[in-house]
Q: What sequence folds into this?
């Protein structure tokens, strides 16, 4: 995948800052294809500077108070509003132990300056292959809540991201939240490798759930291919527990099974090697759990 | 020869004494005492006004498993003739180091088969950021006056970045015996070189990694 075009100054656009979701939907209906919804703008502004997109209306969701909350869902689970920034998510007590994988992924996104501006939902909707939160959200079985003219619908993150910069969202819809189901015995780890402070070249999100006899493991790789993807073979390798033996086996399986791409940042061969390394790192930290 | 200031600011004065305050127009010429033309036969001669000598030393940490390099310490010493502003000089040496390090480790313009640049913006043409800079900088200078320089000074500007890549490359060689002669020495390039030149070392590092010990780092 190539990296678009040189950055130039922003195209002309009208800036809207609605106060409610209804108001935002109204604006979206009025301007149709000419409008784009913006969270932190980290991805969108760059896309506009590259002229990959030239919306003439920007609808900034940061002013919508109802989307600024992280709330517990009755019966277990977490609902993260679309205007919640990554640094807000990292505040004490927001993401508990059962969301450790997301906490680690978010804490490793870019740098503090960007985390203050970027939103989790924006990170997800950007849907470029190298971003960090989608693998963690897929491992957590999270889903996206979208509101449109026809009402509300819920889409699993794994099918929400259809391809690079391609999401399952109608032009008249707005993502209002990410919902993560709760799970008591859930633990997780996230590892990534970057060259300097660049985009991830490979990332992995691991989640295990110890519920009595039944043990579930989910392993999702990001940045190695055009979309984040689970590797069920690696999950199989650790389903009976994370021990030095199973970690080594999982790393070898990952090396063989995870499909990697060549792009401007790294070759597929190097990514395959990194997959092995980060698998060992992430699982190594979770040993004995 | 001296010219009264009055004659200079009036600009051109006609022989009859008339002048209408024209612009001050002047011409100057400086020729260095040592410069010569190059001999067309041998190419020998003295083409540059000064040569600033100096050296760069680095301490790096190399992750054998991924090929990632961290520069822990940077030392630069240059003979600047005369340090007219020592603080500015230090900043020049440190800044030059970071620029040289960025070129050594990250920067590369990439092309596709048609000749289009595939990384035409700073998202993909990566340059060093604060996070990548060494934890420790040492900048020192020596003063051997340049006989025809101002106060004995000579230039330092871009010179402070020239030897950084070589210093890093030599540090890699001393740490793991791997020679890198191409830039940038990004993690993939270093990992490739280790895989080709010292597969034994990489194998060992991967083994101890598989034992789930702490990351293997070579320090030099």
A:
């Amino acid at each position: 995948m190539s990296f678009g075009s040189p950055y130039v100054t922003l195209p002309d656009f009208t800036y809207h800052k609605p106060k409610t979701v209804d108001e935002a939907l109204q604006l979206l209906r009025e301007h149709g294809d000419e409008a784009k919804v913006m969270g932190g703008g980290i991805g969108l502004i760059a896309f506009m500077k590259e002229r990959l997109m030239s919306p003439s209306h920007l609808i900034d969701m940061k002013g919508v108070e109802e989307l600024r909350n992280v709330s517990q869902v009755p019966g277990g689970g977490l609902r993260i509003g679309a205007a919640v920034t990554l640094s807000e998510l990292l505040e004490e007590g927001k993401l508990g132990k059962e969301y450790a994988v997301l906490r680690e992924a978010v804490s490793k996104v870019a740098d503090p300056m960007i985390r203050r501006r970027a939103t989790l939902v924006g990170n997800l909707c950007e849907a470029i292959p190298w971003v960090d939160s989608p693998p963690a959200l897929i491992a957590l079985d999270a889903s996206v809540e979208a509101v449109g003219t026809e009402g509300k619908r819920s889409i699993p993150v794994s099918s929400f991201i259809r391809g690079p910069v391609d999401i399952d969202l109608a032009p008249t819809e707005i993502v209002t939240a990410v919902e993560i189901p709760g799970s008591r015995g859930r633990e997780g780890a996230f590892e990534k490798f970057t060259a300097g402070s660049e985009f991830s070249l490979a990332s992995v999100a691991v989640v295990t759930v110890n519920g009595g006899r039944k043990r579930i493991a989910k392993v999702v790789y990001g940045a190695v291919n055009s979309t984040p993807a689970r590797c069920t073979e690696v999950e199989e390798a650790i389903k009976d527990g994370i021990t030095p033996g199973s970690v080594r086996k999982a790393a070898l399986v990952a090396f063989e099974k995870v499909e990697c791409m060549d792009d401007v940042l790294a070759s597929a061969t190097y990514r395959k090697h990194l997959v092995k390394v980060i698998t060992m790192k992430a699982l190594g930290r979770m040993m004995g759990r | 020869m001296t010219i009264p200031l009055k004659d200079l600011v009036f600009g051109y004065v006609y022989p009859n004494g008339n002048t209408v305050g024209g612009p001050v127009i002047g011409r100057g010429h400086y020729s260095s005492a040592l410069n010569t033309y190059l001999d067309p036969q041998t190419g020998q001669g003295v083409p540059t006004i000064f040569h600033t000598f100096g050296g760069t030393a680095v301490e790096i940490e190399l992750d054998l498993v991924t090929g990632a390099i961290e520069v822990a310490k940077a030392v630069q010493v240059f003979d600047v003739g005369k340090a007219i502003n020592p603080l500015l000089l230090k900043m020049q040496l440190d800044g030059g180091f970071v620029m040289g390090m960025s070129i050594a480790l990250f920067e590369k313009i990439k092309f596709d088969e048609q000749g289009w640049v595939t990384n035409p913006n700073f998202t993909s043409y990566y340059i060093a950021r604060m996070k990548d800079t060494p934890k420790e900088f040492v900048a020192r200078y020596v003063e051997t006056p340049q006989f025809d320089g101002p106060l004995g000074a000579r230039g330092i500007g871009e010179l402070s970045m020239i030897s950084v890549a070589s210093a890093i490359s030599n540090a890699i060689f001393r740490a793991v015996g791997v020679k890198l002669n191409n830039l940038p020495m990004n993690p993939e390039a270093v990992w490739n070189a280790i895989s080709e030149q010292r597969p034994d070392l990489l194998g060992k590092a991967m083994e101890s990694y598989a034992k789930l010990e702490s990351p293997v780092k070579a320090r030099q």
Observations:
- Chain B has a mean pLDDT of 88.
